[in-house]
Amino acid sequence: MLNKIGEHFWTFPCKDWQWMPETKNSTYLKILSRFEDKRAAAFSIHQIALMGASEGKEVGQWFGPNTIAQVLKKLVVYDEWSSITIHVALDNTLIINDICKYAVISKSPLSKLSK
Question: Which Pfam families does the annotation name (predicted)?
């Protein structure tokens, strides 16, 4: 996910970019801050564990691929800075109309979750 967020904000492919200790790129640092081990970080393990409860998973339980995808879909709504939307295709089915709908929904957490 961190790689995809980086691709969203940088014009060069993230896979070819290498971190250097002297890196001061503000966009890179802002993206990295979203994953810090702090409760306030949008995608911290704290937020993932807490949001997992809405998927029926208690702290300490295994989150399978679908559970973590659903949790990240909910968490990304609250990241005001990134403007990223996550759509989880169920049963290996991708509905183009759904993708188009999510691409134009406002960044409001309530409007995204109610759709």
Answer: Peptidase_C54
Find, among 72, 66, 115, 55, the residue nearest to 91 by Cα: 66
Give CA angle at 37 (8, 83), nearest 5°: 25
pLDDT digits (tens, 9 = 90+) for 27-63: 888 888 999 999 999 999 999 999 999 889 998 899 9
Nearest to 104 by CA among 83, 89, 90: 83
Q: CB–CB of 71/51 below 8 Å?
A: yes
- Nearest-angstrom CA–CA distance, 26 and 91: 39
Residues above pLDDT 90, as percent of the chain: 29
Residues 6 or more apart whose Cβ sits within 8 Å of residue 26: none
Summarised one tens digit per residue, pLDDT across range 61-78 is 999 998 999 999 999 989
Contact assessment for residue 85 and residue 78, using Cβ atoms and an 8 Å cutoff:
no
